[in-house]
């Protein structure tokens, strides 16, 4: 793992992807690539692309032929629903040009970028097979739409990491600012589903890992 790069990216993007989050992403994605799980790598909710840069570097180091697809409205968040808190419409806005500039700064190949709301872009542009997905949609509807489009395309053995999934019973240190994320996952998979694995850390890491069982289609 490129530790120095992770430290630098975390310093530039501390509020969204600290070092612990980047480390977790590394181990999840590198495992999928190491075991040759077929399919593309996708990120849903890429913002300015600093976490995307980390994904791209892992791909370049381990399997540079893999495609990286990024999805973002580039208009900030949609209006929150009844289950959404903390953030509001238009928050977390970034421009596509920021993503492209960050990839150029780190001298990485430009990813395939899909601008627009998830419910419009994912049905047509989501890769047919996915090895790894990072879901960072923040709100209930965004995560639900992400799961509906990504999980059926996830290859057996593939992994989804869901940011902001907080289960305080399993991980009392987790940040619980976006409860709609957990509600969407629990609604899609069922409360207490064995597919939802809480990931803990020394800080306020709030992640769920979803692994598609081998043999599932």
From TrEMBL:
The protein's name in its UniProt record: Methyltransferase
Coiled coil: none
Superkingdom of origin organism: Bacteria
Residues that span the membrane, as ranges: none
Alphabetized SUPFAM superfamilies for the sequence: S-adenosyl-L-methionine-dependent methyltransferases
Cited Pfam families: TylF (PF05711)
Species of origin: Paractinoplanes ferrugineus
């Amino acid at each position: 793992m490129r530790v120095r790069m992770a430290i630098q990216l975390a310093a530039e993007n501390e509020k969204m992807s600290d070092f612990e989050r980047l480390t977790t992403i590394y181990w999840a994605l590198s495992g999928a690539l190491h075991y040759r799980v077929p399919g593309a790598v996708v990120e849903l909710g890429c913002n300015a692309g600093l976490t995307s840069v980390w994904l791209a570097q892992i791909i370049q180091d381990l399997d540079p032929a893999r495609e990286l697809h990024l999805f973002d409205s580039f208009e900030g968040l949609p209006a929150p629903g009844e289950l959404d808190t903390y953030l509001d419409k238009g928050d977390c806005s970034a421009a596509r040009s920021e993503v492209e500039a960050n990839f150029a700064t780190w001298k990485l190949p430009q990813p395939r970028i899909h601008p627009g709301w998830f419910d419009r872009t994912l049905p047509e542009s989501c890769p047919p097979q996915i090895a790894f997905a990072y879901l960072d949609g923040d709100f209930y509807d965004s995560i639900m739409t992400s799961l509906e489009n990504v999980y059926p395309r996830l290859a057996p053995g593939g992994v989804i990491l869901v940011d902001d999934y907080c289960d305080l019973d399993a991980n009392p240190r987790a940040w619980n600012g976006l409860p709609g994320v957990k509600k969407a996952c629990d609604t899609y998979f069922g409360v207490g589903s064995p597919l939802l694995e809480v990931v803990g850390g020394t800080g306020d890491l709030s992640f769920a890992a979803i692994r598609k069982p081998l043999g599932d289609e």
